[in-house]
Amino acid sequence: MRKNFTLVIALIALALATYVAVQPKIEYRSPTPEEYVHDVLVPQQVKTFDLPDVLTFAGEPVPMDDPDVRERLDREIHVNTFFHSSTIFLIKRSARWLPQIKPILEAEGLPADMVYLALIESGLQNVVSPSQAVGFWQILKGTGKELGLEVNREVDERYHPIKSTRAATVYLKEAYEKFGNWTNAAASYNIGKKGLSDQLEEQQVNSYYDLQTNEETGRYIFRALALKIILADPSRFGYDVDDDHLYLPENTKLVEVTETIPNLAEWANQQGINYKLLVRHNPWLRKNKLTVRSGNSYTINLPVNG
Q1: pTM (2 decimals)?
Q2: Secondary structure of the chain: what % helix, strand, coil (to 5)?
Q3: Within 23-155, where are the H helices?
């Protein structure tokens, strides 16, 4: 038995040696410097972009003759241009939400450019910040209640894209009345009305563009301007987004609810959908039940097939 095993091993070794011997020899060498540059280092195609000579935000002129303003805008245009995954999804989501948000702003007397605050605040997503600011407009719990939103364990209208937009317009109109221009009002959405007022008074200036602030506030309006420029002509900045790839508004219907729903998942099934779809179209529903007090009602958005 042992002799047979030894014979098998010997035959395998002989076969491997024969196979190796008949294989063509391959020579390996390091690439020359010229080959390395052309074949190994494939240069990334990165370009810079011209800045506009004339630019406005909310109908107000941006001081493009100020070198500091130009550099800050230049930074945000290039940061957002080359932040590919974030910007491409902003383009896609904007196709769904901007047509719904802009008319609300305009109906409330706000310039359409204010929509870009929602883009820089949340990327048009119902995100939650480390400070627990919530939704498209990143509204804190106490602020939401002050602005007329319902916020409790079952219902949190900060997650409601339409109602939170209306709440944001209340804040921005109050800020405009305080500061007298939309640029300062928009900046106060980041730093707060009191925060901006204190900074302007301390530094004895009247304009956001003349203000020395922390980095976040200092970039705030310029991020909005950069997205305004990029979304106006995405192809100029290298974004080739097919119309079929955009996220468009979905076909839905509104259903008024006047009685408590003890189990929303069961109720969703009765409507011909599931709980996931119910929450997708109504992210303000925070629990699997909805308590409707006497004399109150809620409007629920339901998807319609086809």
Answers
A1: 0.84
A2: 55, 10, 35
A3: 33-35, 67-81, 84-107, 115-122, 141-146
